[in-house]
Specification:
Layout: E1 13-14, E2 20-21, E3 23-25, E4 28-30, E5 35-36, H1 40-58, E6 75-83, H2 91-106, E7 119-126, H3 129-134, H4 145-159, H5 169-172, E8 176-180, H6 186-191, E9 197-202, H7 207-215, E10 239-243, H8 246-251, H9 254-260, E11 268-272, H10 281-291, E12 298-304, H11 308-319, E13 325-332, E14 340-350
Parallel strand pairs: 8-9, 8-11, 9-10, 11-12
Antiparallel strand pairs: 1-2, 3-4, 5-13, 6-7, 12-14, 13-14
Helix pairs in contact: 1-11, 2-4
């Protein structure tokens, strides 16, 4: 078999002033200050050392639970802070308000008084609180903090046209995004308007819930500037909701796997808060490996830092996923406030076969 198109290792570029500029990998911009992950033990040590230091500094040493927002409600109304409009204040004030907004959203999403109204987006998300307790292994039927926090930061960057945003708007608009373990489908609801096509997946039992949330996204009339609310996107016609079982992908014969996954290869493969139990790691890694096309697919993983041994097992497994393929993985720090880790990875090289 001829060698497939591949990506070479990322190298950050120096500007004329000596600053390190971000590097592109597909639709993802690897931020300056990101570090390449070579050793899983070292990466995990640094992540949890930093987490412990931040908890000690801000007094949040208490355990906040597994990470779901409110498992007792059938419907949650989530307010996402989009930041201050670009033309409302000068760049310095805008940046200050954005940082304040992130801090507020991290603390139960409460907004304080500000001189300049911030734009917000309200999204109603249905949950299946009964399934969380009655269906074994079902954690996706309720909304989790990681999805909300990650969505808010990405939306802030996209709405203010941040020149160093994690996702590149011009490239994202032509991209096919595939999300694994989507749960309630929040990310599909809020990110689909920015992409060419969004395929949102989870186990068969969660497909009706995701479809319900995608279809109920009705446009709201533009609010007055004083209220600062952004309209919710129209029901996404560019969204496909599909069942995808990682264990089936892992166990299926090569000839059958093609029938279990989206027909079009992904430009961006999104995995948010899916790593919490060791039994899920082998099938998840198999699915990531199968869906990632060298030279095309970028993998974006966001996790909440819970059990240290589970995080280490996943990362080690990802680095050593295939003897024929070199995976390059970068750690993105400081993007989302909270107990999170963000990694961007891709298949960097493949041997001739």
């Amino acid at each position: 078999m001829a060698e497939l198109k591949t990506w070479v290792s990322v190298k950050h570029i120096m500007s004329d002033t000596g600053d390190i500029l971000p590097a592109l990998r597909g639709v993802v911009r690897i931020p300056a200050g990101s570090t390449r992950v070579i050793d899983a033990d070292e990466e995990v040590f640094l992540l949890y050392t930093d987490l412990a230091a931040r908890k000690a500094a801000d007094g949040t040493a208490e355990f906040r639970g597994l990470g779901h927002i409110d498992s007792h409600e059938d419907t949650l109304t989530i307010t996402l802070n989009l930041g201050v409009p670009d033309n409302a204040v000068d760049s310095g004030a805008s940046g200050k308000s954005t940082r304040a907004g992130r801090a507020a959203s991290h603390k139960k999403r409460l907004r304080g008084k500000r001189d300049v109204p911030e734009r917000t987006l309200e999204v109603e998300i249905a949950q299946d609180k009964t399934a969380l307790h009655s269906r074994k292994g079902d954690t996706g039927s309720v909304l989790w903090h990681a999805s909300v926090d990650f969505a808010e930061v990405v939306l802030q960057q996209l709405h203010r046209k941040d020149p160093v945003s994690l996702l590149v708007p011009d490239l994202l608009s032509g991209a096919h995004v595939v999300e694994l373990g989507a749960g309630t489908g929040l990310l599909a609801v809020v990110l689909a308007p920015f992409v060419r096509h969004y395929t949102v997946t989870d186990i068969e039992e969660l497909v009706p819930l995701i479809r319900k949330n995608v279809s109920r996204s009705r446009p709201q009339p533009p609010a007055s500037p004083s209220k600062g609310k952004a309209p919710l996107p129209s029901p996404a016609l560019n969204v496909t909701v599909a069942a995808l079982d990682w264990e089936e992908i892992r166990m299926a014969a090569p000839s059958l796997k093609r029938k279990l996954v989206p027909e079009e290869a992904a430009d961006l493969l999104v995995v948010v808060d899916c790593i919490y139990h060791p039994s899920l790691i082998p099938p998840l890694l198999s699915t990531i490996d199968y869906l990632t096309v060298p030279g095309k697919t970028t993998v974006l993983v966001v996790i909440e830092l819970r059990a240290e041994d589970v995080v280490r097992e996943f990362l080690q497994g990802w680095l050593c996923l295939s003897p024929a393929i070199e995976w390059e993985i970068w750690s993105v720090s400081g993007l989302v406030v909270g107990p999170y880790a963000i990694w961007v990875g891709w298949k960097c090289a493949i041997s001739e076969m």
